[in-house]
DNA sequence: AGACATTCAATGCGTGCGCATGTACGTTCT
DNA sequence: AGAACGTACATGCGCACGCATTGAATGTCT
């Protein structure tokens, strides 16, 4: 392969790293905890947040997901009893998402998996 | 946000970079040339390859795609007349994929788009 | 040569994604 | 206050993906 624009080199490097790690992470989280990478990220932000709750809109900003994808990630988590939706009094368009006890517990376990996978596959 | 494990910091950094660039790139390629990022990558490998042809199996190794996704990327490109499939004499399980003139021409245009997007969004 | 394992590619299937739209609420301007 | 515009979330839709399976060709071992 002839030498490429350094821009392309670094893009390929980035793509390669991301793909490898994301794939491993997704598989591990799915296999051990039944979570998508996105699902885990949602849980993670919630646990980090004040009172384990956050508005969907804030999740959208933090995560690298579209609004619809975020909404559906919350759907999935809710269906598993890991989070709850709640009315947002101050702005009734908004929806709070709150991690349940079960959600926090699962997050703690999944965090171990995440760290293990990152430790192994992130150079 | 409290400080995190440096492993998590770099993972988030990687995820963030990738998502931003990939999103922009995908949109630009789709809008201007009707190509997926993956489609473009396939074309790119073909153009790089000896005689603009490569076996699907080799594409799978190079690209960060499953075998089925690669096969379907080739389907799409073939449907647009950008590549052709051809028998592989030496191993009749295999399939060669060959970029057509149209494919090479489109690749050249798309490359400009890629470089522009990378230049703008890749730090 | 014959039986068994392996490899390459295509395809059925289920899933998560983004885009576009719908609906309800909020904000602004006159 | 009322109209027009903007924002938050849910949902219909089509698409690309990965996994599992299939089918054909190859390779291996006895």
UniProtKB/TrEMBL annotation, chains A, B:
GO terms for molecular function: DNA binding; DNA-binding transcription factor activity. One of its GO terms (biological process) is response to stress. The keyword Transcription regulation applies. Keywords: DNA-binding, Transcription, Transcription regulation. InterPro entries: HTH_MarR-typ (IPR000835), MarR/SlyA-like (IPR039422), Tscrpt_reg_MarR-type_CS (IPR023187), WH-like_DNA-bd_sf (IPR036388), WH_DNA-bd_sf (IPR036390). It comes from Embleya hyalina. This is MarR family transcriptional regulator. The keyword Cytoplasm does not apply. Residues 11-123 form the HTH marR-type domain. Gene3D superfamilies: Winged helix-like DNA-binding domain superfamily/Winged helix DNA-binding domain.
